[in-house]
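::Amino acid chain::
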Amino acid sequence: MLMLRASLLFSLALFGSAQIKPGCVAKHCAKEAAKAALDPMFYRNSVCELGCQNNFAKDKTPEKLNYQNCTTTCAVSYESPAGDAFTGCGMTNGCMSLPAIPGSCPYKKEHIQADASLASLTGEWWQHRGKNALWDCYDCQHIHGMFLTDNASFCHQTVSPKGTVQAPCWSYTYSYDLYLEKGGTKTFEQTWQLPSDTPKGDHIDIYYQYMGSWHNESWFILQATPNYVLLGDCSYMMAWIDVGSIVWVRPGHKLTDAENAAIKEQYKTKLGWDYDSFCYDKHGEDNSGSVCRNPVKSTTETFPARPRIFHHGPPGQKRPFMTPDQINDLKAELAAQDLKTDLVVADQAAPSGKYTASVPFILSMTVNFNGDGTMDFDNDIKIAKKDINCPKEPVTVSATSVAFPSIQKIGDCMGDALRGQKKDVTKFYIDINSDGTLTFHSDGWPKLKLKPSSSDAAAVFI
């Protein structure tokens, strides 16, 4: 699979010999740090990743893949919007640094097929085999579609060092499965805007937004045929380089002995690699995806400003997380600058009692905080004639948000009901606003503002 890999999903903080700069965070990311430090999912992610730290020094695999697999699993399992925002801000503003993992990109211009370009990947593809033992070996890796579009507003969502991607650009939608800490997998999908102006026979520089921050990698099309494409990839994240290669195959096509022999010769001649050592991707023997679930789409974010720093950050990167001592240091730094953030002053009152909102003819929502770690949830979706009524739904309340710790479990009332509507339950949470209202976040629905039941409860989509 492509080197980004991972749903990554971050918490920003310290580990090992990595460095985080409290002064830099206080200057550039005070609000993001406040929300992340008080977010229950950020905390769970940090606790999970603490268990990975001993693996870093002990891991002797190329690119420390065992360590990356551990942190990837934590990140996928405990993603939080607050953690993503903190990580993106910290990385973009240079508030963190990581110890180097030695490596280099082995691909050269002479390895690229002279007439190949992104057009060689037009349409739909399934991964057959992969070089990198982690990033290229997740199951169900799938290019759902690759097509050229003249939609300038879509293309401009991605920014490179040269500016926004210009129309026409390539719309590239892919997905793959990632492991969860307590077993099972989660399917992740994303759409990128890729440049269409790279000359044939050149490597392609890819920039994309992920988990609140920007990343980059380089693609090298080693061979392109009607039935399969050999794609080499180098991904960059600060002092880290991940190297991989994928054999993409058309849906329904099974590689022949002659095609496999040709692929093996390409890797041996160009790079000295043994194709027999590549992993097999699992998605059905006929490249139909018959064993794969429908992917969960990620939320598209737009970053109009050019980022200060470009980097690649797979979910398995050695992410920093903040220890209690570092959080205290950051509090002191913020206090010294008299910054009134939630790290210093948590001035939002914890929600209690009933909050309501309604949209005429569409929905009526009521949540009631019982004061015992549970919340009664009732969402009457009138337009779909569906009522989700879940009394005593477990909640975790911080100074700035409300999380649903059981929502991913089978048998959870709220989780089961939302999964029945094909919703990604990891995207459901509630913000606690300073004006006493709540903002309900979901998958595919607009943000909904709820007010205490004693006030005007007309809903506001934001």
About this structure: The chain has a mean pLDDT of 77. The chain has ten helices and 24 strands.
